[in-house]
Amino acid sequence: MFENLQEKLELALKKISGKATITEDNIAEALKEIRKAFLDADVNFKVANDFVQQVKVKALGTKVKGMLRPEQVIVKIVHDELVETMGNKNSELMLAPQPPTIILVAGLQGSGKTTFCAKMAKNLRKKGRQPLLVACDIHRPAAILQLKQLGEQINIPVFSEDNSAPQIAQNAIQYAKKFARDVVIIDTAGRLTIDEEMMQEVKDVSLISKPTETLFVCDAMIGQDAVNTAKAFNDLLSLTGVVLTKMDGDTRGGAALSVLKVVGAPIKFVGVGEKIDDLEPFYPDRIASRILGMGDILTLVERAEREIDDKKAEELEEKIRKNQFTFDDFLDQLKMLKKMGNIKDLVGMLPGMDKKLIDTNVDNTGLIRMEAIINSMTKQERSNPKIINGSRRMRIARGSGNSVQQVNMLLKKFEDMQKMMKSLSLGKKSKMSQQFKKWGIM
User: What pTM, to 2 d.p., does this model score?
Assistant: First the structure.
């Protein structure tokens, strides 16, 4: 996430490293590089210029105090201005004082709109709500089928019927009132490009449903084009929020940094993966920290907390205390780690992590390989790895599609981990700290 922008900003900020004071002359080159980094990331031209100007004004008006260095002051100013550009604080989903809350979801085809509807529905149910999904994309039969399949997967009802989109929306709201569904999520039609028919239809759906929230879903990977499309929808629908999908991909950053200033609507959610749980609120301060290479430990903690089963954690702690940690337990930890997301992304959330490590040595391939090796072991071998001799190692290697050397490496890592577990004192440390120790991250 934002790797290219992060790298270029780091180089830009190094231009002021070693300076004794902040002057217009010694920050000029750094500001020029920051502006170039923004434009390369497909940030809106005016947003990029305004950003650089604000940083310049604040930097020249700030005195370096105490033990601080000029580059530290500039980093703080850039961080604060990034937060300001993206919206200062998390913008929560609005809920109607009297149910049902109506959420209209618009966007172009292929942006992840239908999947987002299901993700948001599951997210709301976790918070005690009773959502209803509504299939108003009547032009693409596959969209209705997709929404129904997603609804079945998360056990949330989907309202659909053979009718016009505005009428389906109206009937769905009546259905929701009758069956006590307190949030209605309307999935509207998407097209490959903006056209009059689509825009008029979504406007009619909006007029008849009177939504509490109107969210526009766009692909974060297409940068400023996504923002321009959002602006066109905003002119028609008065958007209350934007959702950026595919944030786990090669996101340049243009959309995230331009949306609020150009469209006037805050980013409310970000899609961070293809799984139904891969949806997170958008926190400008956390994203700013990640862009500047400062990590995002709060999001990492929240992802871990979602996946940690308290009962299993207690059982695992007891096994560690008794030195009974087995390959089955290790496999459970690997599966949990995979659920949290891409390993490269997770490591990028750790502050101070070496960029070379993030770029070259960290991916999910290693986890998949380890899982395959463990799955090729017998139950007895998982419980007591000491019995794994040369012939067993060859069998495990063949069964998992790996080399004997890779099997040996895993056995050695596991032995080292067991030793660490034995000497580990969990004490009163936080659950997250305990998990990091179990993974060997800390």
Answer: 0.69
